[in-house]
Structures are given as structure tokens and as C-alpha cells.
Amino acid sequence: MSETIEFDVLKTAEAWAADGRRVALATVVETWGSAPRPTGSHLVIDSDGNFEGSVSGGCVEGAVVAEAADIIEAGEPRMLEFGVADETAWRVGLSCGGRIRVYVERVN
Q1: Domain XdhC- CoxI spans what residues (predicted)?
Q2: In the predicted model, is pLDDT for residue 93 greater than 60?
């Protein structure tokens, strides 16, 4: 993912928060194997489930968006882990192998 795209995602988070939307930011903090996004990749999510960016090229975005709703409501950050050894691997699409850790935090 290019720096421009990452910058745009962070600008989106800032704009959504300025508009009064409740927002969470998901950041890839660790990958192993065939994870399609590098560490530092971002996904911004609002409380209505709208999102911009990517943390896995589509493999785990749905699960991250669902968790973000709880994180936005509770205000407690959470580390999410997905991988082929994890029981959620087949459900979220990492069946090709690999592992990804995503940190999700409310930003406003």
C-alpha cells in the first residue's frame, strides 16, 4: 500500500471525526506468511460500519469492522489475531496461510 493511500486513510479518519462521526482505526502490527498488507497498513471504520483502507486485502476486513463497532462503543482498544492456526481462519479467508495481528482503537 502506498504512502499516499495510507495518508488518505488517516485524512479520512480525521475528517470523519471532525464531522462528529465516532471512528476507530485499525492498524496492521504484525504479519507472517502470505498476509497481503504490510505492517502499518490502516483501515478506518465509523460506527455505521463505513470503512476506508485495508488491513488484509479483503481477507479479514469484515471481521475487523464487526469488532470495531464494539470497540467504538466500549472505548477499549483490542488486538485482533487471525491466522491459519486460528479457528477463524476459514471463516475470514486466510486459508492460504499466514497470520495477521491488527490493533483496533477508538480515535474520538
Answers
A1: 16-83
A2: no
83 vs 105, residue with greater confidence? 105
> Can you tell me the distance from the alpha carbon of 8 to that of 48, in angstroms, rounded to the nearest whole number?
20
Contacts of residue 90, defined as CB under 8 A and 6 or more positions apart, other chains included, come to: none
- Total count of residues recorded for the chain: 108
Show the CA angle centred on residue 30, arms to residues 44 and 5, nearest 5°: 40
Cell of 57: 486485502
Q: Using CA atoms, how far apart are residues 64 and 52, in angstroms rounded to an integer? A: 12
| pLDDT tens digits for range 11-43 | 999 999 999 999 999 999 998 876 678 899 999
Q: Residue 85, Cβ neighbours under 10 Å: how many?
A: 10
Close Cβ partners of 67 (under 8 Å, ≥ 6 residues apart) = 78, 80, 104
